[in-house]
Write a structure and sequence with these properties.
This protein has 341 residues and is an alpha/beta fold. The protein has 13 helices and 11 strands. The termini are far apart. Residues 168-297 form the 3-dehydroquinate synthase C-terminal domain.
């Protein structure tokens, strides 16, 4: 199945919902997003369909087993069928959560996404990776379940906080290392709409080639192994954590050019902050290694696959043992303490 990615105006979202071939629509909406846009997305204008609405906690807070069970039981209790269509309105965390509900309820129903954050528009809403978090780490309980539609409306970016915009920029920065066209658009400070479209199309292409992430799609994990660890340890937004995960990867295994490219891209994207989350603190080697050992990308009990960048648009997968990573971290711990971009 191929996902249709379409740019829509805010006032046309209900019109898109009305065109779905179903008599039952399930909606999961981020609580904060809904408080801002409920008067623009008028559910009462959905015609000839039963509408069931479940409001999700903001952002990552919803991605837990208890809220997952609550949502599933809510919809099942209301009486649904396998031709029902679930619609997620929110950022990447909400679509991760809602997509898992769609993938599992009645053994899988169709679903569509209205991404409302920059990070979600360029990355999280595309590709069908859906999940909730475990106490052991991020996105460890999940599935692959492609959405039918992704309706992108840049209007939502206008109400994002600086922190949320910065998080989205972190994922865009990742794409710059994987695809020269995106790199060029960012360095030239092209219109953000064009950058969003380029990122979405690039991820869609890799997803079509490799849905289950056994080959080329793994390149999209650039910066994520260290990034997820940093995200959990310091409680920072996902995209920002990915950027620091890439920086850490390049510091340990990359080149000076890699780090210079990050600095140039960070400036072009107007991302604030030069100091790493661990700046002037003891680098948390033990915690980093603990999260790496539980990462989804481990290739064996003693090793993990990491995405390496030779140059812009030239990426490869390399397997590193945990002993090797720990040794490099130990050797660089004093330098890492003062790490800035």
């Amino acid at each position: 199945m191929k996902t249709e990615i379409k740019n829509v105006e805010l006032e046309n979202i209900v019109e898109e919902i009305n065109q779905l071939q179903t008599d039952t629509v399930l909606i999961i909406a981020d609580h904060h997003v809904w408080s801002l846009y409920s008067k623009d997305i008028l559910l009462e204008k959905i015609e000839n369909k039963k509408v069931l609405f479940w409001k999700a906690a903001d952002g990552e807070k919803v991605k837990n087993i208890n809220d997952f069970q609550s949502a599933v039981e809510f919809f099942l209790d209301k009486g649904i069928h396998r031709n029902a269509h679930l619609i997620v309105i929110g950022g990447g965390a909400t679509s991760d959560f809602g997509g898992l509900v769609a993938a599992t309820i009645l053994r899988g129903i169709k679903w569509s996404i209205v991404p409302t954050t920059l990070l979600s528009m360029v990355d999280a809403s595309i590709g069908g990776k859906v999940a909730i978090n475990s106490k052991s780490g991020k996105n460890l309980i999940g599935a692959f379940h492609l959405p039918t539609n992704v309706w992108i409306c840049p209007k939502f970016i206008e109400t994002l906080t600086p922190v949320e915009k910065n998080s989205g920029m972190g994922e865009i920065l990742k794409y710059c290392f994987l695809d020269y066209t995106i790199y060029d658009l960012v360095i030239r400070k092209t219109d953000m709409g064009q950058i969003i479209d380029a990122c979405a199309k690039y991820k869609e292409k890799l997803t079509e080639e490799d849905l289950k992430e056994t080959g080329v799609r793994r390149l999209l994990n650039l910066g994520h192994s260290f990034g997820h660890a940093v995200e959990f340890i310091y409680n920072i937004p996902h995209g920002e954590a990915v950027m620091w995960g890439m920086s850490l990867l390049f510091k340990l295994f990359g080149t000076e050019k890699n780090l210079n490219d990050i600095t140039a891209l960070k400036k072009a994207l107007e991302m604030p902050g030069e100091n790493s989350p661990w700046f002037n603190k003891e680098f948390p080697i033990e915690k980093i290694m603990l999260y790496l050992s539980k990462d989804k990308k481990i290739s064996a009990l003693s090793s993990i696959d990491l995405v390496m960048i030779k140059d812009i648009g030239n990426a490869d997968i390399e397997t590193k043992t945990f002993d090797e990573i720990q040794a490099v971290l130990e050797a660089n711990k004093d330098e890492l303490r003062k790490f800035t971009l």
